[in-house]
Amino acid sequence: MNKNKVKAFATWARSNLIEKIKDRAYKIGIEDNRIRDIEVVKSGFKVMGGEEIFNISPKHRKSLIKEIESKSLDEVVEEVAYTWFNRFIALRYMEVNDYLPIGIRIISSEIPGKREPDILFRFGEVIRELRLDSNLVYKLLDSSKNSDRENLYKYILIRQCNELGNIIPGLFEKTENYTELLFPDNLLEEGSILRKMCNDIDEEDWKEEVEIIGWMYQYYISEKKDKVFDDLKKNVKITKENIPAATQLFTPKWIVKYLVENSLGTIWIQGHEDENLKNELKYYLEEDIQDFEIDDILHNIKLGRKNLHPEDIKVLDPCMGSGHILLYAFDVLYKIYKSAAYPEREIPRKILENNIFGLDIDLRASQIGMFCLIMKARAYNRRFFREVEKNPLKLNIVAIEESNGITYEIIEYFAKEDEELRGDLSYLVNTFKDGKEFGSILRVEKVNFQRLKERLEEINEENNLVFSDYRQILLNKLPKLINQGEIMSIKYEVCITNPPYMGLRGANDTLAKYLTNHYPLSKHDLFSVYMEVCKSYLKKDGIYAMVNQHSWMFLSSFLELRNKILEDSTFISMIHLGSRVFEDNVGTIVQNVAFINQNSEIPKYKTRVVDLTKELTALEKKIKIKSVCSGMERDGIYNIWLKKLMTIPTKPFAYWANDNVLNLFSNLHKFENIAKPRQGMATSDNKRFLREWYEVDINEINFSAVDRDEALLSKKKWFPYNKGGEYRKWFGNNRYVINWEKDGSEVKDYAAKLYKSYSRTIKNEEFYFKSGLTYTFISENMGVRYSPQGFIFDVAGSSIFLDDKDLEKVVLALLCSKVANMFLDIMNPTYNIQVGDLKNIPIHEDVFKEEIKSIIDEIVEENIAISEAEWNDFETSWNFRTHPLMRDLRERKVKNVTIESRFKLWEKENMKIIEKLKNNEEKLNKIFIDVYGLNEELSPDVPYKDITLRRIELEREVKSLISFAVGCIMGRYSIDVDGLVYGGGNFQDKWDFKNHRVKKVEIDSTGKVNENRWVNSSFMPKFDNIMPITEEKYFSEDLMTKFIEFLKAVYGNEVLEENLNFIANILGKKDSETSRQSIRRYFFKEFYKDHIKAYGKKPIYWLFDSGKNDGFKALVYAHRYDSLTVALLRTEYVHIMQRKYEGELSTLELIKDSQEYSAKERAIARKKSEKLKRKIEELIEYDEIVAYMANEKKSINLDEGIKENYDKFQGIKIMKTNGKEAKMNLLYKI
Predict the structure, then answer these.
(1) Does 145 score more than 90 pLDDT?
(2) pLDDT digits over 271-316, tens only?
(3) Helix, coil or strand: residue 90
(4) Measured over all CA atoms, what is the biggest interatomic distance in the chain, rounded to whole angstroms?
(5) Range from 57-61, 88-92, 555-559 carrying the lowest mean pLDDT
(6) Rounded Cα–Cα distance for residues 593 and 613 (Å)
């Protein structure tokens, strides 16, 4: 199956269907904000003011309007789109596999190349079978209108769907009349959903497996899923309507096979010693040889299964989705029935009615699941549909129905003073109120369902008009409530599922409250809740199988859940899957585990665990587990009594830990005895309170506060903030500042407003501004860094503090070592490094012995110095001095140096420090491994990927030199002074244009000013803060000319051409270009994209950009912007640019019309002329928004951040000269 094509079609189909159904609604007078009146005519109605007559009963339109009023037009359209999409793909599957009872293709034709479906040419054969109105059929056929052929096809298609409802309930059951009313038009046309479905997806894909239907559905809702998670990032909780889209995830087939074969397969194989079945199950994992002392327990379990008949085995998927797991359970059950010598024709029906049970909150998914199961039965029995027509199926597949709408009065009417009836119905109504919020996690007790059914039958036979409304509600709702109540109240031999993954924080308030009250141990995520739910559905010794996220195995928040599971159940086997298991999840943060759990405790049972975390792709994992199950592979298999691991402080399922390592946990002191790991604050609104340091006025940042009192007295607004960041050791990731003005009054007030007390989220204030160690909360590896004084810290950049600062370097070394990494990996191999895990790291006292400590201290000092110097080589560091390709040139007064030679020198230095750091880290690893006695478990070697220095790259560094040059051009940096020259405040205080001078300021780490004086400047920035970027030289001073001036000033005039050639070649110079043209093209087309990327979509240089025709571009340094900048830009640059274009155009017009020039020259002039006309046209339009904003004299506030200020110049509504309102951007669209 080509899943890329399936996904492309399904996502397109959703938007196409929604558009077509909305168009259909519009035709019948229904719009988003108004309902148009209609005129009732003999055969139907027409919309007032329109001519088209709709041959549909007006009451159907009325019911549609009523539905829209109770929901919304969008919601109704979405539901109708779902319905027809699911039916179309089901019909396509059935016709391709020759399953349609009519035996004629209804979507396509069997004749290759024929566009119209066969049914339009053979409808006469099915008039009786589809109960078609022959008069209507021939009337439409004889019509000369194209629309009537469409209407005929629509009529036949709907009739076919209705007839299929007799054998395939759910998907083809009779719908509301408005569903047919909104049937999309023009399905026979090329490009319609049906034509595209036939053309885009190979027919063979429909023949592989019925799973294509499930994939179609998952991809169909994928865009809705993306929107739900985008909204979640904006703190929009997931509503019950969106839970299905948010949690739908198709399970890979090989994982499904492991789950089914080792649960359902185990139940049968253990009771019946069915070796033939075992050999057929390729993912069946044999259990380990157990200790003799539990032989009797295992024997009794097997004995209890010996009496099971195939019909006795009930299999439940409580989160069935589109039925993927149940479909494979069907296959295994079929093998079981066959091995028990049942007649093959009888087996499919027996499985559907006796063995397969499914629950879901998503009606559409459950309908697809039901359809797929019936198709599976049809695949095993070609007469299945005929048998079902004679004797309807009783399926056990349910989409949870809500009891909302059944009032106290209705219950009284139903009970008829019978206390048992009243009590039972009241219980069901209360239990299933808002049932779609909760689905199968609801706990349902048995009531007298038979008595409820009998009373319902009495009501069905009544003809009491007084209670007709009550009667109708009961007849509509109660059969479904009874059915789901029965399914949810019985116990099962097997429960298998891939549960929804949804954290408590993403849940809406109703669901969150229910989880907290009913599932306190597992409430943190729905996937863990379902571990308790599945167990509750089981009989004693029953088995549940599940794939979910592996965090429950390790995180401290699940510790009590782990305890409870081990107390009253037994893990038979586990596959630790790791990351990249699901095809649509390519990341490494989501890690999974699949397991088989039996609902009884077997003391000292050795669970077989297969570790697939080292296999990097889903295919590698599949091959490995298949090899393990066949007995061909022994590597990565552990047989362990899981309770043994409870000696580890956080009680993780660290199945790989050997006795030596476990003894270290038991015998050594804990990390918390010498250090204080502390969780940082959560601001509750990072967009409001955090900035990257380069966004704000540098003069408003206090980089050196030693404590809260000094911070308060400084009256500064912004302070350094540790917020985690990428994996990095020793030093770095210093990018953020926080608004902590007046001791954080604004942050605290906001937190108090949200949570009543600010201390709930703003923690450990007594440690603010202290030096210590910091690390990233969510990280694949433990990257710990030295943090000097002056920082506040975030929950994502939690910190560690020591009372004895003399131990700090040893602790840093240990935490950056393989030894600490091993301990953390055992306690919590998830990507959430928790304070509790750090506290429990075993500490060996020998590492603090002076002879060892002195060696460690020296190495750590060097590592910090190397990492700090490397961090400061890049301009996004606030301690950046100068570009490394210029380092020492000024001091040594060296001129005429090539950039290439400087790069080779830097590259050599970079390789040297990487090797040095690698050697140092390996020395430290060797020390700790020896002290802890872990030579058998660990090697001191450090791979280069774990050396967290940036290996310099030629293209990146040349671009960073260009970026620095632009900084010098805009006045941010100087080639004559190290560090940041201007980052806010009064520009004239830093640059003296009259005397060509720049201010040199040197400040030490405590904030003390050591030097503050004017020095001569050999390169001055752009005076007016506006730097045009042009394709050709239109201005005497543009970005390209200024860049050349920069190169001359830094490297010398004699090597200018060599340096230009070197830069141009690195940037991808074309053969037809000069070096200057190549660099100019880079500035014009690529520089700003690189700037945006380097500054994390918070550019400090703003690109005024007229649009796609590149009519005008100019850079402005945000920190130098003032309210007159736009006016100056308009008069001195936009207007001049326009005049230059017009002059150039006049010349080109003369050339293209003159015979004095060759045909080639005229063609070139013609092409340039057309391009210039587009530029001029764009520039005239752009001038309107520039003029408007110039008059506005818009000011900015750097404290608000780059994005907030940038947006002030985007999407501006203006009235254009043509009198129309338009939205326009002044700046490049990020």
Answers:
(1) no
(2) 888 889 999 999 999 888 888 888 889 999 999 899 899 999 999 9
(3) helix
(4) 108
(5) 57-61
(6) 10
Six-digit token string for 168: 């395939």
pLDDT at 997 over 50: yes
**Would you state the structure tokens that stand for residue 774, as one six-digit string?**
């910091």
Measured from the Cβ of residue 716, the count of other Cβ atoms closer than 10 Å reads 17
Give the SS3 label for residue 595.
strand
With beta carbons less than 8 A apart as the criterion, state whether 739 and 746 touch: yes
1027-1028 vs 1113-1117, strand pairing mode: antiparallel
User: 371 — phi, psi (to 5°)?
Assistant: -60, -45
Please give the mean pLDDT across all residues of the chain: 91
In single-letter form, the type of residue at position 967 comes to G
242 band by pLDDT with thresholds 50, 70 and 90: low
Taking a C-beta distance cutoff of 8 angstroms, is the pair 537, 281 a contact? no
State the pLDDT at residue 227.
62
pLDDT at 231: 56
User: Which of 33-42, 470-479, 969-978 has maximum average pLDDT?
Assistant: 969-978
Whether 905 and 894 have beta carbons less than 8 Å apart is answered as no
Q: Give residue 586's pLDDT.
A: 44
Structure tokens at 435: 């049932």
Pairing outcome for strands 1212-1215 and 1221-1224:
antiparallel
Supply φ then ψ for residue 360, to 5 degrees.
-160, 160
The pLDDT of residue 235: 57
Q: Are 570 and 511 in contact (CB under 8 A)?
A: no
Helix H or strand E segment including 1173? helix 1159-1192
CA angle 1107, 1113, 1114 (to 5 degrees): 145
> Which of 608-612, 681-685, 829-833 shows the lowest mean pLDDT across its residues?
829-833
Worst-scoring range by mean pLDDT, 59-68, 617-626, 953-962, 1089-1098? Answer: 59-68
Backbone angles phi, psi at 1200, to 5 degrees: -75, -10
Alpha helices in 781-849 (DSSP H): 808-815, 818-827, 835-839
- Provide the 3-class DSSP secondary structure of residue 442: coil
- Torsion sign over Cα 968, 971, 973, 976: positive
Task: Find the mean pLDDT for residues 905-925.
Answer: 97
Question: Residue 189: its pLDDT value, please?
Answer: 87
- The whole-model pTM stands at 0.78
CA distances from 90 to 8, 21, 321, 546 (A): 18, 19, 16, 28
| Under 8 Å between Cβ of 306 and 272 | yes
Name the E strands within 695-825. Answer: 718-722, 736-739, 772-775, 784-787, 792-793, 799-801
In the numeric block, the tokens 């924080």 are attached to 505
User: Over the range 323-347, which residues count as b (16 or more CB within 10 Å of their CB) and which as e?
Assistant: bbbbbbbbbbbbbbbebeebeeeeb
Among 768, 641, 763, residue whose Cα is nearest residue 702: 768
The secondary structure of 150-185, three-state, reads: HHHHHHHHHHHHHHHCCCCCCCCCCCCHHHHHCCCC
For the chain, the C-alpha Rg in angstroms (whole number) is: 36
What structural domains and CATH numbers belong to the chain?
Answer: 3-228 (no CATH), 245-400+490-550+560-582+602-616 (3.40.50), 401-437+448-488 (no CATH), 667-844 (3.90.220.10), 953-1094 (no CATH), 1097-1229 (no CATH)
Nearest CA to 641 out of 649, 627, 653 is that of: 653
User: Exposed e or buried b for every residue in 1062-1099, given b needs 16+ CB within 10 A?
Assistant: bbbebbebeeeeebbbbbbbbbbeebbeebbebbeebb
Planar angle of CA 1080, 1085, 1087, nearest 5 degrees: 80
Handedness of CA 87, 92, 93, 99 (dihedral sign): positive
Residue 585, helix vs strand vs coil: coil
DSSP code of residue 941: -
Alpha-carbon distance of 266 to 299, in angstroms, equals 14
**Residue 847 · residue 675 · CB < 8 Å:** no
Length of the chain: 1230
